[in-house]
Amino acid sequence: MAGKFEVYEDKAGKYRFRLKAGNGEVVATGEAYETKGAAIKGTEAVQRAADGATVVEV
């Protein structure tokens, strides 16, 4: 099963997203956004940034 982004409202009334792996484990979380639309745009930005990203040791 593929991973998925979940967009949700936190206790403070802000919107956040989390990326869950296919097994349900949370592998990434986003910052707080004022609107649900902004949180969705945040997921899209992560998708674009991760496409073809490499792993670099620092």
UniProtKB/TrEMBL annotation:
Annotated DUF1508 domain residues: 10-57
InterPro entries: DUF1508, UPF0339_domain, YegP-like_sf
Gene3D superfamilies found in the cross-reference section: 2.30.29.80
Pfam families xrefs: DUF1508 (PF07411)
The protein, known as: UPF0339 protein
Lineage: Bacteria, Bacillati, Actinomycetota, Actinomycetes, Propionibacteriales
